[in-house]
Design a protein that fits this description.
The protein is of the alpha/beta class. The protein folds into 2 domains: about 5-195, P-loop containing nucleotide triphosphate hydrolases (Rossmann fold, 3-Layer(aba) Sandwich); about 220-310, Helicase, Ruva Protein, domain 3 (Orthogonal Bundle), CATH 1.10.8.80. Helices cover about 45% and strands about 15% of the residues. The chain contains 14 helices and 11 strands. Strand 6 (about 130-135) and strand 7 form a beta hairpin.
Length: about 325
């Protein structure tokens, strides 16, 4: 018996519980949860005040994961993230003091407000779930998830995220403003419930999250869909408007997030819409445009959509 069904049911309860605190963002919530279940990290790029921090706290609480928030500032140094060795006078020796990265769910708030050298302190943690300090490797708790927020680069006092850093985020998404009726619903809820925050209940725990990740591995990917993913990534590498296409890591990421999306839908097999539904958030932030793309004010998201429109879609199960 497949574990996909029970995992999908748990995931649905997680989303329902998070929605008690976060209004009108179901599609974004599903995308973020797909990123978590696919075993990766998520970058939320958006304006201040749209609920990024609330969303991160809500997911950590409902998933039953330890949570820490780290505010990235220009004076932050790598040791402030990873931890450092300090001299213990009682023991007469140096001992390692863990930094905030030692948690299950790390909110890296305003990641692009700290210089690239400090941003790079997260690279090993995000890729290998460990940190190395003074020649000693320290494993991080499992699961380990980074949810980073990134204010738009036009804002004063920000630094561009290095390509190597961006490539380690499984996906990038934006929240945007609520529709007027949903914003009214949020206001009504606030006035009805008062200033007390919504108390969310944990639906699962770290072992449960790892179990849902294992269930994602049971989602079948047929040969024609594997070919479809490769054709899509290859087309972006050949795009004359792009200086750098999608990496091999992007091929794996696209497949894994699409599998997680299928699980959220209660299926143990992939369909083309799973790939199409996550292609832009998984691929666009990994692409580097040529100068002429900037001049034309086009975006890497547009290049992904163009590739999706041009590449033939394999038939869905049951189609001729």
């Amino acid at each position: 018996m497949t574990a996909v069904g029970p995992a999908a049911a748990t995931a649905a309860r997680v989303l329902d519980e998070v929605e008690r605190a976060v209004v009108g963002k179901r599609d974004t919530l599903e995308l973020i949860l797909a990123g978590v279940l696919a075993g990766g990290h998520v970058l939320i790029e958006d304006l201040p005040g749209v609920g990024k921090t609330l969303m991160a706290r809500s997911f950590a609480a409902v998933l039953g994961l330890g949570f820490r928030r780290l505010q990235f500032t220009p004076d932050l140094i790598p040791a402030d993230i990873t931890g450092s060795y300090l001299y213990d006078q009682q023991k007469g020796a140096f001992s390692f003091v863990e930094g905030p990265v030692f948690t299950h769910f790390l909110l890296a708030d305003e990641l692009n407000r700290t210089p690239p050298k400090t941003q790079a302190a997260l690279l090993e943690a995000m890729e290998e779930a460990q940190v190395s300090v003074e020649g000693t490797t320290h494993p991080l708790p499992r699961p380990f998830v980074v949810l980073a927020t990134d204010n738009p680069i036009e804002y004063e006092g920000t630094y561009p995220l290095p390509e190597a850093q961006l490539d380690r985020f499984l996906l990038r998404t934006r929240l945007g403003y609520l529709e007027p009726e949903l914003e009214r619903a949020m206001l009504d809820r606030r006035l009805r419930t008062g200033a007390e925050p919504v108390v969310l209940q944990a639906v699962t725990d770290p072992d449960g999250v790892l179990g849902m990740r294992a269930a994602v591995e049971e989602v079948e990917v047929t040969a024609d869909l594997r070919d479809y993913v490769v054709r899509l990534v290859t087309a972006l590498r050949a795009d004359p408007q792009l200086a750098v296409g999608a990496s091999a890591r992007a091929t794996l990421a696209l497949t894994q997030v699409a599998r997680a999306r299928a699980l959220l839908a209660g299926r143990d097999f992939l369909v083309p819409d799973d790939v199409k539904g996550v292609a832009v958030p998984v691929l666009a932030h990994r692409l580097v445009p040529r100068m002429e793309l900037w001049v034309r004010q086009a975006s890497t998201e547009d290049r992904v959509r163009k590739a999706l429109a041009e590449i033939p879609t394999p038939p869905t199960r049951g189609e001729p």
